[in-house]
Write a structure and sequence with these properties.
Largest interface: A-B, 52 and 52 residues
CATH topology of the largest domain in chain A: Alpha/beta knot
CATH architecture of the largest domain in chain A: 3-Layer(aba) Sandwich
Order of helices and strands of chain A: EEHEEEEHEHHEHEEEHEH
Oligomer: homodimer
Mean pLDDT of chain A: 93
Shape of chain A: elongated
Structural class of chain A: alpha/beta
Number of helices of chain A: 7
Low-confidence stretches of chain A: 248-252
Chain lengths: 252, 252
C-alpha cells in the first residue's frame, strides 16, 4: 500500500481503528501523532495526511491535497474469464499498470462456471483492484464488470482503437501497430486457450486488429501485463514521467 | 505444459508412469497408442513424439525432431531477492518470456533470510523455470543462481548493454533507450523497495543506464514482465515471429 486511498465522503470523519488503513498507518508505517504519510482521494488528487490524534476507537487525520489530479487512463481491457486465481492477478496487475475499465467476458473456450466464482459475487474483486491502484501510487479506480459474453463486452468497451492479442492469425506484432497517443483504446485478451474462429470473426467485424507478442506462448496474465506495457510505451504514456517522490518505506 | 521437454539422455529410455510427464500425456492430453504430441529437446529443437506403447510401468515413445533449433536468448536478468512467492513468479514469468540467465541477488533493502528459502536450497526453483519454458513452447532452460550480492551478480552477468530499472533517478524511459538488436543485454530490477544510493552508484560504475517505466510504482514481478516485454519489442525479438502451429488443447 504505497498510497492510502480515501473516498470524499470519508474525509471529514475519524478513521476507525478497525479499518485496515488505520492498522497500516500504525503498524506498517508506524506513524506517531504529528507525522504524515501519502494519501490519495479516489478519482482525485494525491496528497499528504497528518495523523493528528490517536484515540481509543479511531484516528483523527488532516489532509492536504495537491492541485493537479492524475490524468484519466484511456485503455479498456477485455479479458476472457479464467480461473479465479488468474483473474485476481489480472485485476491487481491491470489496476497497477493503469486502465480505465476491465471487462471479464465469457468466451467459448472458458469454463462457464468461472463467472459464478465468489470473487465476483461477493465483491472480492474490488479489493484486488484497490490493492493494485494503491501499489501504483495512483488514485483512479478502474470500472470492473464480469460475466457478459464477448459480444456484449465489445459493445460495452467501445473505443476508437481496438486490438486483440492472437497467437494464431495475427500478422503484425503489437509494438509495430500505429497506436495514436490520445485515443480511447481497447485491448482484448483471450481465455486460457485463446479465441475461437467465431470469436476472431466477431472481433474483426467489430474493427479489432489482431496483434502478436512474439512466438512464445504466454499465459493470460502475462499477456495482459506484456500487452499493456507495450501499449503504454507505444502511446507515450511512459514518456517524460517524473520520478515518484522519494519516500522511505515506499515499495519499488 | 504446452511442450513436454526431454533431456537428450532420456530419449532412448521408456518414460516411467510415475513421471509427471507420463501422467500429463495420459490424463491431460489423453493420448492413446499411435497418437502424437508436441515435445522439445532441452536446449535443442522442438518436435513430435508418438506414444508407441502404454505398458504397466512405463510409456514407449518415438521422437521426430525439427531441423531448426530455437535461437538462444540474449537477455540476462538480475533481480533483487524478494519473498519466495514473488521469486517463484519471477522464475516462471521470465522463463516464459525468455531469458538466457537469471541471477537473484542480495540487495541492501532485501531481507537476508530470503536467500535461505527452501525454494533455493531444495532445487524447487528448477521446477518453476521448467514450467515457464514449457508454457512458452520453448526448449532453452535459463541458467539460474541465487544468493550472491549485487556486485557479484553484475560481474557474473557481464553483458554489452546494461540497464537497471529505477523509479527515482532514471531520466529516460526504457522504451526510448536505443537497445541494439543482437547484443547481450542485462536488465537489473531491484528488490521490493528498489535500489539504495550505494547500489545505484555500483550500477552506474559498472556502466548501467537507469531506465524508467512510467510514473506508476510497479511490484518487482510486474516490473520484470513489463521490462522484458519492452526490451523484447525494442530489440526486434517480437518482429516477424510466425504464429505458433495450431494444436487443439494448447494453452493461449
Amino acid at each position: 500500500m504505497n498510497l492510502i486511498l480515501f473516498e470524499k465522503s470519508e474525509l471529514a470523519l475519524p478513521l476507525s481503528r478497525g479499518d485496515p488503513r488505520a492498522r497500516h498507518i500504525l503498524e506498517v508505517l508506524r506513524r506517531a501523532p504529528g507525522e504524515s504519510f501519502d494519501v490519495g482521494l479516489i478519482d482525485g488528487p494525491r496528497g499528504r495526511a497528518v495523523l493528528a490524534q490517536i484515540r481509543d476507537r479511531d484516528l483523527v487525520l488532516s489532509f492536504t491535497w495537491e492541485v493537479t489530479v492524475p490524468e484519466p487512463e484511456l485503455i479498456t481491457l477485455i479479458v476472457g474469464l479464467t480461473r479465479p486465481q488468474t483473474c485476481r492477478r489480472v485485476l491487481r496487475e491491470a489496476a497497477t499498470l493503469g486502465v480505465a475499465a476491465m471487462f471479464f467476458v465469457r468466451t467459448e473456450r472458458g469454463e462457464p462456471s468461472y463467472a459464478d466464482s465468489r470473487l465476483w459475487s461477493t465483491g472480492e474483486y474490488e479489493r484486488h483492484v484497490r490493492t493494485g491502484v494503491e501499489q501504483a501510487f495512483a488514485t483512479r479506480i478502474p470500472t470492473v464488470a464480469a460475466g457478459m459474453d464477448l459480444a456484449a463486452g465489445v459493445t460495452k468497451a467501445g473505443g476508437r482503437v481496438r486490438v486483440a492479442l492472437d497467437n494464431y492469425e495475427s500478422t503484425t506484432p503489437l509494438h509495430r501497430m500505429p497506436l495514436p497517443a490520445a485515443e480511447p483504446l481497447v485491448l482484448a485478451v483471450g481465455s486460457e486457450r485463446g479465441f475461437t474462429d467465431a470469436e476472431r470473426g466477431l472481433l474483426r467485424d467489430a474493427g479489432y486488429q489482431l496483434a502478436g507478442l512474439g512466438e512464445r506462448v504466454l499465459r493470460t496474465e502475462t499477456a495482459v501485463i506484456a500487452g499493456l506495457s507495450v501499449i503504454k510505451a507505444s502511446t507515450g504514456r511512459w514518456d517524460g514521467a517524473p520520478p515518484v517522490p522519494r519516500e522511505p518505506g515506499r515499495c519499488c
